[in-house]
Amino acid sequence: MHRARGLWRLVAGPRPGAGAATGAGDGAGAGLGLGPEAEADPGLLHASSPAVERRLRGLALVRGGFLSPGEAAELLRELEPVLGRRPYQFDHWDGAICGYRETERAQWGGAGRAVLARLGGAFPPGRPAQPLVHVLDLHPRGHVGPHRDSVKFCGCTIAGVSLLTPSVMRLVSCRPGGGWLELLLEPGSLYVLRGAARYEFTHEILPDHASFFGGRRVPRGRRVALICRNAPQETTPDAPGDSPAFIGGTETEPPPPQ
């Protein structure tokens, strides 16, 4: 369906071991820089080593309270009628994702327009987010496996906001022994992946049974995310170990041979 077409590239990489808003209609993240110089909320990052944290500083960004409660509620009111008509999918031909439903959306109400305008600050000059926003609804028993978004369909920057329940996003280096970084994605939070975090690390949303952050249990229920991506350029970096597998034109069948 929609965004599943060619979006994810799976990588069989190494696995590691085990805010308040400022006002209605204006998330706490408004007005704060979101470029590579931006600082993440330190309490929402957990790295395998100080070296990994230094390497991904400004490249893997997480900010709590980017949405106000009012914005989050309005976004959900707008999305629920659309998502509710779609069944959750629990099978996928290569296991990239389980327990999900999704849609793409270009037209938004006032809250959506305000949030997307702020999100625009995460993208580099001349490389804005694409107009279609990927809305991904993850079932409480669902998860997103380790992947890099396909360089055929996604450019240098990914930015998303999370709704409903907390979750843990784990980034793992595509190079064996390269380490990992975890982001705690609270409801209303923002995350941004760019540079090495986008091209040289896989990312995943942990299933409920494995949802821990710094040794602390993070129970995970249903999660809805709005994800923005910019368009790819003709030449895009390729990471070692990247699989040629792509999600094809349907949700359950592999793409035809090239």
Automatic annotation (TrEMBL):
**Which cofactors does it use?**
Fe(2+)
- Give UniProt keywords alphabetically: Dioxygenase, Oxidoreductase
Q: Which domain of life is it from?
A: Eukaryota
Alpha-ketoglutarate-dependent dioxygenase AlkB-like domain segment(s): 142-226
Checking SUPFAM superfamilies in the record gives:
Clavaminate synthase-like (SSF51197)
- MF terms in GO: dioxygenase activity
InterPro entries documented for this protein? AlkB-like (IPR027450), AlkB-like_sf (IPR037151), ALKBH7-like (IPR032870)
State the Gene3D superfamilies in the record.
Alpha-ketoglutarate-dependent dioxygenase AlkB-like
Q: Where is this region: Disordered?
A: 230-258
One short Pfam name that applies is 2OG-FeII_Oxy_2
Q: Which PANTHER family match?
A: ALPHA-KETOGLUTARATE-DEPENDENT DIOXYGENASE ALKB HOMOLOG 7, MITOCHONDRIAL, SPERMATOGENESIS ASSOCIATED 11-RELATED
Protein known as: Alpha-ketoglutarate-dependent dioxygenase alkB 7, mitochondrial
| Protein's organism | Grus japonensis (Japanese crane)
